[in-house]
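To start, one record:
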Amino acid sequence: MLEELDNLTQSRFVFFSQLLGKTVQSADGQDLGRLVDLVAIPGDAYPPIESLIVRSWRRSRLRLLWTAVAGYDETRIQLLPSAVAEPVGDVTPPNRIRLADEILDRQIVDVQGAKLERVNDIHFLEVKGVLRLAHVDVGFRGLVRRMGWERALDGAVRGIAPRSSYLATGALLGWKHIHPLGEASGHMRVDLAQAQLAELHPADLAEIIEELDREQRITLFSRLDTETAAETLEEVSPEVSTQLLNDVTPEVAADILEEMAPEEAADVLSELPTETQSELLEAMEQPEAREVVELLQYDPRSAGGMMTPILVRFLDSYTAAEGLAEIRRRAEELSRIYEVFVVDAAGILRGHATLKDLLVAPLEQALKELMREVPGSVMVDASLREVADLAAKYRLLAVPVIEQSGELIGMITVDDILPAVLDAA
């Protein structure tokens, strides 16, 4: 990316640390004060700098447009004769970012690296007089530069270890691949923020959220679309999921719970007070709420508490063609299809078949002819150990859960069993 930017004509790079604290001087040589901040307009891949914030010698703050800058060197920033200074208000205008106040020394989400980083410096690209935000520096060298020690330390390192990685370009992250955190970054374009965060795997997002403080957690969580929020909530610890649901409105919480797998939603709700559970269940759509209520009656560590009621269950009279048609119809609902279970008219489990079985069988063949005997199933009150032992013994990808009568009511998948076993270890 640096090479691509370097090819632009009439361009140069400059770090924020090389501008901060510089004297700002009018066209006639009058010192107005020192640069304390720059204001960017977010939205572009490389946001332009709109204005400078200058602290006058009387301690008041002044704002000047960047277009009023004639040039700058190592000691000062020179203004054009047309420059007009105006007082700075206490509130940042909408859709603007004060870089020193809101980005420098703050935590950001590195979308590509899927981790939290601290901003030690900011890297700008000036093209034809327009200063643009290109990168953030999250490396140690950026911190050294901020402290004014770069020249001395670079010289010392070159003398001792000229090939040191410290002397490399630095830990620069492209602005378009980061996501600022904090109240101030609420001025960021929400659609861009959501698109960036949706690129992260829910497990990575959950890990990041776990590391944040309460205020930062809800700031980040509130920017996720409903589907991403639901997937992330399934990955965080019960303590954090409880806190996040408590910090959003009941309507938002209900939307998120509806998007979650029923067993995961039940696990999250089980950690909440009874009064809160009732409020959220009331706000949910009734079909989803009923599924969750049914699961809440079971011990979370039992087969009933771990199972999902969303599974592929066909009557034994179905043909392969009817089975495939039903799977296509429910494609959006069925995020995972390990196998199909075959039941009789009373819902009693009779056998199972794989998706491959349906695909290669004659379309008119009945499932009762295709199915094989289920090697094992568990009752709703079975323990985690019983479920894990059965899955390991028969190498099952999905363990069917039945009532005393033999009626099939759910399944527990291997990717639900493994985390539960690890948590219990």
Summary: The two ends are 45 Å apart (CA to CA). The chain has three domains: 1-173, 201-297, 313-424. The first strand starts at residue 11 and ends at 15.
